[in-house]
Specification:
A hairpin with a 5-residue loop joins β7 and β8 (about 185-190). This protein has helices spanning about 25-35, 50-60, 75-80, 110-120, 140-150, 170, 195-200, 220-225, 240-250, 270-285; strands spanning about 5-10, 65-70, 90, 95-100, 130-135, 155-160, 175-180, 185-190, 210-220, 255-260. The chain is globular and about 45 Å long. It has an eight-stranded mixed sheet. The chain has a two-stranded antiparallel sheet with strand order 7-8. The two termini are about 20 Å apart. The chain is an alpha/beta fold.
């Protein structure tokens, strides 16, 4: 088992900042959505952010060291989780921050692979260890995080059953599909497959599997692929799935898909805020950090 969790929270949140027609949000919620990182939007009890719940699940799963990758303007994270650059105590978790700097000539961060690369450059011991990586705007369950921490495979991802998500079908259809073999090893990631071809990617359980960017990595194995990750030709970002696909070309059958069937609350756009608030009310009556 490993004890390291890296949370990616340095993105530009451009979809969250887009205007919305929903009338379910307060002025304060809209303001937070426009200026805060998505993981810091106050969707929980007493206005606490989604990040609280992700950290709570991480602690329940046994993680000890958490590295939050923030932007150069991410100082609000330190108001919530510790004023020091590293080794802050937050309810028994050791919280450190890495900064994703914007590359010269760009106006926004360079993507998730770049975020992870900058984090391990700032904490190079991670390149000799295993670690879990996840988004800050998804609430992964304790069980999913524990599965990544517990697996004996050097690299892994949670292979979610697409039909278990509580999202509109139109939204689900935009998710990239994970192509895995009969032993659940990752073969490829298929972006927006057509309805005609999507059934060809069902696994041995006849499930369509997707990734919600929850991974475990062998730091040393992944490092050259995040360092040399190319920009996506359309989105112009260095994306973690691209680095992963390049890695499995050289290291086949080294990345296992861990099947799970459950919903993953997600804060992508303003329209998601009300749904996440309702989910937290139903499933988290309180956070007992000492449990």
């Amino acid at each position: 088992m490993h004890n390291n969790l890296i949370i990616l929270a340095g993105g530009a949140s451009s979809r969250m900042k887009k205007p919305t027609t929903t009338d379910t949000l307060s002025k304060e919620e809209i303001q937070q959505a426009n200026i805060r990182s998505k993981g810091l939007i106050g969707v929980g009890a007493n206005g606490r952010p989604l990040m609280d719940y992700l950290l709570y699940n991480a602690k329940q799963a046994g993680y000890k060291n958490v590295y939050i990758v923030i932007s150069e303007q991410g100082g609000l994270f330190k108001e919530f989780y510790g004023s020091n650059d590293s080794d802050n105590d937050f309810n028994g978790l050791n919280i450190s921050f890495a900064i994703q700097y914007i590359m010269p000539g760009r106006e926004k961060p360079s993507g998730t692979a770049d975020a992870l690369f900058q984090a391990v450059e700032q904490y190079p011991h991670l390149n000799k260890e295993y670690y879990t990586v996840c988004n800050s705007d998804n609430l992964y369950s304790t069980e999913a995080l524990y599965a990544l921490r517990n697996t004996n495979h050097p690299n892994a991802f949670i292979a979610y059953d697409r039909d278990a998500f509580d999202f509109p079908l139109e939204r689900i259809s935009r998710f990239a599909v994970a192509q895995i073999d009969t032993h659940n090893f990752l073969i490829g990631i298929i972006e927006k497959p057509s309805l005609d071809e999507v059934d060809t990617y069902k696994d041995v359980e006849r499930k369509i599997r997707v990734s919600m960017n929850a991974f475990k990595f062998d730091g040393g194995m992944l490092y050259p692929y995040i360092k040399n990750c190319p920009f996506h030709p359309k989105r112009n970002e260095k994306e973690l799935p691209t680095a992963l696909l390049n890695m499995i070309k050289k290291h086949p059958q080294k990345t296992i898909g861990i099947p799970r069937s459950e919903h993953v609350p997600d804060l992508t756009a303003k329209e998601d805020i009300s749904a996440v608030k309702e989910y937290l009310k139903r499933h988290y009556t309180q956070l007992d950090w000492e449990a």
